[in-house]
Amino acid sequence: MSGNAMRLQAIRDVEAYVPPAVSFTDAETPGQIFGENVFSSVVMQKRLPKLVYKSVMATIEHGAMLDPLVADAVASAMKDWAMEKGASHYAHVFYPLTGLTAEKHDSFLEPVGDGTALAEFAGKTLVQGEPDASSFPNGGLRNTFEARGYTGWDVTSPAYVLENPNGNTLCIPTVFVSMTGEALDHKTPLLRSQQAMGEHAERILRLFGHVKPAKVVSFCGPEQEYFLVDRHFFLARPDLLNSGRTLFGAKPPKGQEFDDHYFGAIPERVLGFMMDTERELFKLGIPAKTRHNEVAPGQFEIAPMFERGNIAADHQQLLMTTFKTVAKKHGMACLFHEKPFQGVNGSGKHVNFSLGNNQLGSLLVPGDNPHDNAQFLVFCAAVIRAVHKYAGLLRVSVASATNDHRLGANEAPPAIISIFLGDQLADVFEQLAKGPATSSKDKGTMIIGVDTLPQLPTDPGDRNRTSPFAFTGNRFEFRAPGSMQTVSGPMVTINTIMAESLDYIATDLEAAVAAGTDFDTAVQSLLTQIITDHGAVVFNGDGYSDAWPIEAEKRGLANLRTTLDALPELITESAMDLFDKYKVFNHREMHSRYEIGLEQYALTISVEARLTLEMATTQILPAAVRHQTEVAVNVGALKAAGVDADTAPLLAVSGPIAELRDALATLKAALAEETGHEALAEAEHARDALLPAMAAVRTAADALEEIVADDLWPLPTYQEMLFIL
């Protein structure tokens, strides 16, 4: 099907679109279906013996060791509940270092001797599974001939039933570890890091007079940006299908320069998709809150409410799976790549971080007078210290070949890690650098000048969208993560560096109090010291300005522009010792993640390079030659008829065709070049040889797109993909 035919079919589909009947009825409100497919604490309380329920909740709420004796009772109740909901199978769900979700499905039915089968699900089956570990990235932790790996039930993340038209499945969130107990996934280190952070946060709370503070956990509220394209276009683009981004595409006449898409009216087809996804998310207990158009045409965002970091990470993975499934149902494809369209704003996944417990709520709420809120200032100072001291680790937590296309552009913060505090907090910490803080800037009132509108309260400071790590009122927003990555990576890093910073603060204050120093005096001294030593990381200005990298260098802040610049941060002695001290990663696990980072980087680019070569050779070059032939035939016919024909169109095509052939030869040679199969060498070759060669092919191909006849061009264009929805 030609590009023109695909466009016409997509237009017909849009015009004929009727949203599936998924709206809520009077008998089925959002509140009534929320969590209906989740084996929640409410369900457990109804179905489990009282002592078993108390034991499980002690693990979930207070971090108590899970009693293995309760597993059989939980497994039996979970099986009965799931089968009542139509489940025939169960799946241990885990999150390997591919960044995707993995599932191992087994039937509840087990044969018995008389030729029949019984539904069985024992506690040992719930607690532990054994998928093949040799086929997942492990960075040298396992040999290819060593296959044994284990999944282990994560009781803190609720099981759920995943619906399918042909039958439902009970899904059990699990960790995934090697036979030696080393992490092969994203969940295990997240649980370890949250435990470490909570332990030292509770030490500080005890110093502030909370005798038996409830378990402190980290909270996460990830904002998910994504693109939608008509499925006809998606399937007609091998680059989108295989790599998630367009490797070719000329700039359309209209892009995002009018800013007319941002928060605009949501197209009916997209709104139908959104409502359908939200209904599915509600059933799975995922608190979808906000939906809107994003800046780029065809780009949108969903923001859920805050949850415990571990659950938020699981829900994010489930959200992405749900979006892709539902988009297909609505005749679209959902793109999570950080930069699916060159020259158009890319997508991020802002990780909103806070910490707290069920007694005190968030510990990052400043109150009306933050200068007088010592407990808040201590936790805020811990963040400042952690981000400054371990900026490199934060940067590497968001490093990938795909996110490299986005970081530092106008849709994302720069690769320089800094903190935005806002006018009010910046003023308080400036006071602390000189001595006690005695005042806080007040909130203001906005007088709009319309009698029918009320006076609106304003915050004491603006927000800063160019800051990688910004305080936004009661949390910090890490804006650098990419839309395609799991939030577990950034959360592991934040939790771990916070554990170290809170440990440092607690130890300092405990020693001061033990030495007879007045506690308030000790706090004041510590805050002054932290902002003096680490205040260089606080920057409230424009992170996009040309002056900022120069200023950042003067402050000693690193600018790790690419993934290969950032990855060595994982294997510095200080980084390995940090993660080892707080029992998040041992040295082998850190090295494995470094090796996997290199491998994933090289693989991503090499796949794109092969796609570039294939598409340009088999689709773009033949189309250009056909167009050239048609022009030549027409010119020849006109000359034969005695008409003075213009040969300029023929020459216009010939130049880019020659450039394309030369660029393809260079790319083909780069792909054939041997690098010795060493991870770092392959990654460097991908960066230094493949990426420039691909760029040259694209430049020539995009020039041809602006010349070749529309009915001959083989690929859906940016103009079509971004605006036909």
Description of the structure:
It is a single chain. This protein is an alpha+beta fold and about 725 residues long. It folds into 3 domains: about 35-185, Glutamine synthetase, N-terminal domain (Ubiquitin-like (UB roll)); about 195-445 and about 470-585, Glutamine synthetase/guanido kinase, catalytic domain (Creatine Kinase, Chain A, domain 2, 2-Layer Sandwich); about 600-725, Four Helix Bundle (Hemerythrin (Met), subunit A) (Up-down Bundle). The chain has 23 helices and 20 strands. The strands form 4 sheets. Strands 9, 10, 11, 12, 13, 14, 15, 16, 19 and 20 form a 10-stranded mixed beta sheet that branches. Strand 14 and strand 15 (about 360) form a beta hairpin. Helix 20 packs parallel to helix 22 and helix 21 (about 650-670) runs antiparallel to helix 22 (about 680-705). This is Glutamine synthetase type III. Pfam families: Gln-synt_C (PF00120), Gln-synt_C-ter (PF18318), GSIII_N (PF12437). GO terms for molecular function: glutamine synthetase activity.
